Amino acid sequence: MLQQIALVALGGAVGAALRYVVGEWLSSDGFPFATLSVNLAGSFLLGLLTVGIAQNLVSTDMALIVATGVLGAFTTMSTYSVETIELFDQGESAMAFTYIGLTMLICPLLAFIGWKAGEVLWL
Length: 123
Description:
Elements: H1 2-25, H2 33-54, H3 60-74, H4 77-89, H5 93-122
């Protein structure tokens, strides 16, 4: 159990650092591009990785490091939620609804595309 926790923590450190870098790189005063970007990328990558995990082509340890650790720390539902509330609070309802729509439609779509790409890649 401690080994698995260490693997998740290692991956989480990498994912959190990557999340910070993307946040700095794509920071803006208006639309939350950084959070949208990490959630879109994370959805695609997790979809891709899930097929490898399901086919036993990705080890349990690698799944813990990358899927749970890196992607778990890289993507962020809580920041998405707070940013959405902030947009509404700032009177930016149209932007808030755009953000909600893009996140809720494109993230699952990219997870699906990643999944299908994984089927081609892993099979």
